[in-house]
Design goal:
- This is NAD(P)H nitroreductase.
- It comes from Catellatospora chokoriensis.
- The chain has 10 helices and 11 strands.
- The longest helix has 20 residues.
- A 5-stranded mixed beta sheet has the order 4-5-3-2-11. Strands 7-8-10-9 form a 4-stranded antiparallel beta sheet, sandwiched between helices.
Length: about 325
């Protein structure tokens, strides 16, 4: 069903500003929020903010680009929910590699029920590190997410039980590699510890209060959290890999858009999502995941999908930077 088009008495600049604000809710590695928006009367420009990059963990800025791609899709969702059609120009200026995308309102359209649902999911979306319960993810749910990923020219592969075992080995290797690298540990501590930059990072409220007893281990942030994990496991979870044919900045940005789209739809399906980026951050384990895929493409991120324990409290939302810390509004 369609509803009335958005608030078109507002200026395009106001719509762009609202989209940039909504994009601030996007997921990012260690909640660094490594993006900056420039609002103009005729366009919305997305830039990478390398001051919030992770040079130790993410030297190629692979996950930074994935994070920015997620923010880009969030902005697109917000503009569509305002009743606009949007033209996307990815990586518009080769001379400015940090200029990642330009969004331009190209017309008006009725606000669809799907656009409203996505906007609601955008506000609800969160990372859920609690173990899942004994309710399986359905094949129909996975097929819908696979179809959605395909709209971005990205593939979604559901891991078989044997492949999940291989993933568990890769995750274990990634954790061992991270633990053996002091600079890596220091960088993580900066974004997780009590001295993390205000408005960013991973607070105790979203970290488990004990190590979950799951077959595929979770990232060790080196700090105990305050989130009750309950007694669940991951036996009924589904693990999927987003992968594609490219392995460059354009592909990583598109992977981030896909991540956002899949995550928002999964949220709307009532599924909890946990990203496993640690196996992508390290060259050796990223190669292991590619071998799991029979070298059919480049792995962008692994996701655990499942149903969280409804008897346990939901994790809170991670903090967010204020609008003026991530957005510049052109007065002209």
């Amino acid at each position: 069903m369609n509803t009335t088009a958005g608030h078109h008495d507002r200026s395009p600049a106001s719509a762009y500003a609202q989209a940039a604000e909504a994009a601030g809710r996007a997921p990012s590695i260690h909640n660094t929020q490594p993006w900056h928006w420039q609002v103009h009367p005729d366009r919305l420009d997305l830039y990478a903010d390398t001051s919030r990059a992770l040079p130790g963990i993410d030297p190629d800025e692979r996950m930074l680009l994935v994070s920015c791609g997620a923010a880009l899709h969030h902005a697109q969702v917000a503009l569509m929910a305002q009743g606009h059609t949007v033209e996307l120009r990815p990586l518009p200026d080769p001379a400015q590699p940090d200029h990642l995308a330009t969004l331009v309102i190209s017309g008006d359209a009725p606000v669809t029920a799907e656009a409203v649902r996505l906007m609601q999911a955008l506000r609800l979306r969160h990372t859920d590190r609690r173990p899942t319960v004994d309710t399986p993810v359905t094949a129909e749910q996975v097929d819908e997410l696979r179809r959605l990923a395909g709209e971005f020219d990205v593939h979604l592969h559901r891991l078989t039980p044997d492949q999940v075992s291989e993933l568990a080995v890769a995750v274990s290797h990634a954790e061992e590699a991270a633990a053996a690298e002091p600079a890596w540990q220091a960088e993580t501590a900066r974004w997780v510890g009590p001295g993390r930059p205000p408005g960013t990072g991973v607070p105790p409220e979203v970290l488990p209060d004990k190590r979950p007893e799951t077959d595929v281990g979770e990232r060790d942030f080196g700090a105990r959290g305050a989130l009750a994990v309950g007694g669940g496991h991951d036996k009924f979870s589904t693990y999927v890999v987003l992968f594609g044919d490219g392995d460059d900045r354009a592909a990583w940005l598109r992977a981030g858009q896909t991540l956002s789209a899949v995550w928002l739809h999964a949220t709307g399906q009532g599924l909890a999502v946990l990203p496993y980026s640690q196996v992508i951050e390290i060259d050796g384990t990223r190669a292991m995941v590619r071998r799991i895929l029979s070298n059919l493409g480049y792995a962008y991120i692994v996701l655990r999908l499942g149903v969280a324990d409804p008897d346990q409290p939901l994790p809170g939302h991670t903090p967010r930077l204020p609008f003026d810390a991530t957005t510049t509004v052109d007065p002209d």
